[in-house]
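Hi support team,

I'm filing this because I wasn't sure whether my run with zinc ion finished correctly. The job status page said complete, but I'd like someone to confirm that the output block is well-formed before I use it downstream. Pasting the exact inputs I used:
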Amino acid sequence: MSGDSLSNRPSTDEFSDEQRKELLREVRCQTNLHWNYRHLKSLPSELLEEGQHVEQIYLKCNLLMSLPNNLGCLSRLAYCYLNGNDLRSLPDSIGEVASLQVLDVGNNKLTSLPLTLGRLPSLRSLVAVYNQITCFPKELCGLQSLSILMLSGNNLLHLPEAISGLIGLQGLYVDHNQLRELPRSIAALPILTRISCCCNPLTHLPAVPFISRPTIFFDNNPEMSYLPFSLLRQLRSGETWNPVVIQTCRCFQEKVVINNTVLISLSGPVKNDHPHSLVLPSQITTITSSEKGSPVLPSLRELCLRYIWNEKENSKDDIQRRKTRKQFFVLTSDFLPLSLCDILEVGPVAYCDTPSCKMPIFTFASIKVVTVTVTAMMHVKGSVVPAVMYFCCDTCAQQYSQNIHWMMDEFSVWLCGKLDTACSIELI
Ligand SMILES: [Zn+2]
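And here is everything the job wrote out:
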């Protein structure tokens, strides 16, 4: 520790004796240090030697290129603002500042976040906007106090499914990144109220229902060409169904629907020669949309996944049932092929859109594409957006389409008209 302290002592030319005396006086008699815009190139050693009582430190817009390795000695530090410095990395010792609640390292040159951040039990707000971060580590997904996560303006390629571990998360900001999809598990976050994911190459939004019905901002995702119907249902505003009001409609290109036909791309990157296809989640490997005639059946593999998932979910709800039935859930990774375990771990891509069914869908779906007029909050003119409905099988889709004609509630009447004019589907 003493060696660290010495090596971190700034070169004497940064601070004059007079400045040093003043800094020491501030450190000794204040709990909040306001050191924004001070041209600091390093943290004065006095802070670490005598600043154990400091609770807030404001270091915005200085010239810091690194932080000392013995940050852990700031044992009462709760608020740390480092926005607008020149930081290339954060020391692992930041994970020792156990009382840290707010950390702002926005507008630096970070390429990664230290895994030790995951040890901070009180961290409420993590701001790392406008850096060069390529990955949000799954090791940080156990931060149960984290309420605000701001990662806009980085180079994130994906977010981990483990993000559902951030159970206190209320606001997720990932605008201006390289995300092609959002993890489905964010739909399970219990108190998430806002997701902002504008300006990404997102091809679709999660098709599973969001528990907390957050407001989702997704302007300027030029590769997004449809909305999952389950989400549309949640995005409805007011008591009428048409037009549906959502937070944005600047993603959807009007050419997506040509002659009432949509092209579907099952997985992988969007092909340049088919820029207007609807890109379904990559886990879906088989789709069908048989309107009439003999329905296509899901594969045995798909049926197996659904069965195991339902058993698992039911056993969660009903402990008694679990006790009385045979120990079905000895089917762990020791008994199942790894490829199935991986799929089950992430969970279903969607649930059957027939309200009375809600069967989980993993790799096989019968789909319908309806067009819906959506209106953004700020714009009067609506735009026509394709919405993908997922059904567990053709039979379920056909029965729902037939039965809905007999239903008289407002939603059914509205949807009935949509189903009658559903787009035809062309697989590419
Ligand atoms: Zn179904």
